[in-house]
Structures are given as C-alpha cells and as structure tokens.
Amino acid sequence: MFSFSPVLKTIKQILTPHKGILAADETPATLGKRFAAVGIENTVENRRAYREILFTTPNIENYISGVILQDETIRQTTSGGLFFRDILQKKGIVLGIKVDQGLAPFNNSTNEKITQGIEGLDRRLEEYYSMGARFAKWRAVFAIGTSTPSKECLAANTHLLAVFAKLCLKRSMVPIVEPEVLQDGDHDINVTFETTKKVLTSVFLALADEGVSAKKIILKPNMVVPGENGPVVLPEVVAEKTVECFKTIIPESLPGIVFLSGGQSEEAACINLQAIVQYGKQCPWQWSFSFGRALQNSALQTWAGKKEQVDGAQALFLRRAMMTSDAKEGEYQTF
User: Fold this and answer.
1) Which run of H or of E encompasses 266?
2) In-domain check, residue 139
3) Number of domains in the chain
4) Which entry of 26, 112, 178, 240 is annotated as an active-site residue?
5) For 298, how many CA atoms within 13 A lie in the half-sphere containing its CB?
6) Arithmetic mean of pLDDT, 130-135
7) What's the distance, CA 150 to chain centroid?
8) Is 180 strand, coil or helix?
9) Is the pLDDT of residue 2 over 90?
10) Is 198 a residue of the active site?
11) With bands split at pLDDT 50, 70 and 90, how would you rate the model's confidence at 3?
C-alpha cells in the first residue's frame, strides 16, 4: 500500500474540506495594539486568557484544521493547567508555529524590511516539533512604492523563505511560505497584480534553487487587491486578478493556497475569498484561508477583557469560523 510521507499527511490534514487555518500567532506587541483598541491591558495573563477563549470554543474543529501559534502561546496553559497545544490536538487540530522573529530595516531602508530569525532556526524547529508542531510559518513583507520592492530586498527575503522551507522539511514539518505584498498605499489593483507577480516569481525561483519541491509546501499569499487608499473594485475583479496572476507562476504541483486576510475586514475577506474560489474552480490547487483578524475581530471586541462576555465572544468566533468555511466552499452569506 502506498504510504504518504509525514509532510504530505500533514498537508492533507490542513487542507481538509470545509476547514482552514486560524492564525493566532500575533506577537505580544502586535496583540497589545489590538488590545489597546478595545481597552485591554497588554499583560501575559490577558493574552493567555484571550487565547483560551479561542482555543476552548466548542466545535471549532468543525471549521478549523490548523492553528498557528507563537512562541509564548505554545508554552501556555488554560486556567485549569492544560497546555493549549494539548487542547487543540485533542480536537484533531494540527499545531503550527510562527518561527520568524519579526522584521528589521533592509539595508537601513525606511520602507523595506528583511525578516529575521534564520539563525538558530533548525534548533527551534526541533524543539517545536517535540512540542507537537507539525507545520511552521515564515512571513516576508514587500511594500509597494515608486522604487519598491527593490531587486535586492526581493532576492534576500525570498532566499530566506526558501531556506526556511528547506529546514522545515528536514524536520518533517510543512512549510507555510508567506510572501505578503502589503496593502499600504493608494495604488490601483493593477500595481498590486504586477508586484505580486514579481514577488511570487522570485519565491518559486528561490525554492527551486534550494531544492524545495512545490508539492511539499503550502503558500500563504495576499489576495490581489488595491492599496487600502486606492480605487475600490468589486470582488469579481479581485478574483480575476488574483487567479490570473497565480496561473502564470504557481506550479500545478502546489497542493494548496491559504490566503492571509491582510488587514481586510471579516466581511471583505470572506467575500473576496468566495469570489476567488468561484472564479478559480478549474485551478489545480485547493483554495483555503489562514486568517487572523478576519476570524478574531468580532470575538475580541465582544470580550474586551470582561469575564461575563466569554460565552458571547466564543459564539461570535465560532460563527465567523463557520462563515469563513462557507466562503471557502463558495456558500458564504453575510452575517
């Protein structure tokens, strides 16, 4: 009988129909910004309590196949002393881990960034694997500007993405390769299209240079949308531009594409995801999601640090997970 490798088995689990990834890998600093918006103090206990709300929500395993954790979170427990990682695994949810260590200025640039964390990554992956993590994520960001992304920044970041992927596969972990073209700016969707095309071309060339097979990774890209202050377009246009961009670059052997929400609202992220799924029905890849704010925002606003709002927050989180699952299957209806 043919036996899948551990990596391919994990990919199959992550890409289970009707399910997607919850990105709960915000750093303490990033989560602190979101807490501040709803009046929550950024403490270890508050971050722990918030993650407990999400991970102990009943029935999320019906819509969530994997959760991306962060170094702090993979070590935390519920108020009852159970590790979050054990809670999730008992639900049949695959554990993932963010392994990059944030951004630094690239060559002293004010608007280009290089991702940090490749040093010591192999050792960290070994530790996370021992904790139960079976996939890992590395994010590189690319800003759209008059002279960005530069060739040098593009080459440096995509090389790191490829080295990360190679190291993950060495540890039998699935690499989630995340090249994000940022939404900042007033550019139109055609500019995003061309930049995304350039970025993805560089990503797959770098992966090939490192001997990383496309069939053993999952891609986490941005949708092709206008800049946040650019001309608004219909979801059908987002779908056409995204799919047509990908068709020219991404190998057919890639098993799946899990979109980041990239600062879009819960509603916009789902509507655009559904439009892409419907337009791209004939594409060889499985379409899915790896959303952070677009799954969590309503729950966080409802909880706002109040114990009496835990049940309401969990209900909203489950609802958003279900609706995002519907969008993935082309069955989304507004809240």
Assistant:
1) helix 266-279
2) yes
3) 1
4) 178
5) 17
6) 98
7) 24
8) strand
9) no
10) no
11) low
Using a 10 angstrom Cβ sphere, with 0-12 exposed, 13-18 middle and 19 or more buried, the burial of residue 129 is middle
pLDDT per residue as tens digits for the range 141-168: 999 998 999 999 999 999 999 999 999 9
Q: Identify the active-site residue in 98, 113, 216, 220.
A: 220
Query: Residue 125 carries which side chain, given as an amino acid letter?
Result: L
| Predicted TM-score (pTM) above 0.85 | yes
**Do the domain assignments include residue 334?**
no
Whether the CB-CB separation of 74 and 97 falls below 8 Å is answered with: yes
178 is catalytic: yes
The answer to whether residue 1 sits within a structural domain is: no
The CA distances from residue 288 to 49, 188, 258, in Å, are: 28, 25, 4
Q: Residue 3: is it exposed, middle or buried by C-beta count within 10 angstroms (0-12/13-18/19+)?
A: exposed
Residue type, 149: P
pLDDT tens sequence across 195-211: 999 999 999 999 999 99
Range of the domain at 89: 6-328
333, part of any domain: no
> For residue 25, what are the contacts with CB-CB under 8 A and spacing of at least 6?
68, 69, 70, 73, 96, 97, 98, 137, 292
For residues 51-66, give the mean pLDDT.
98
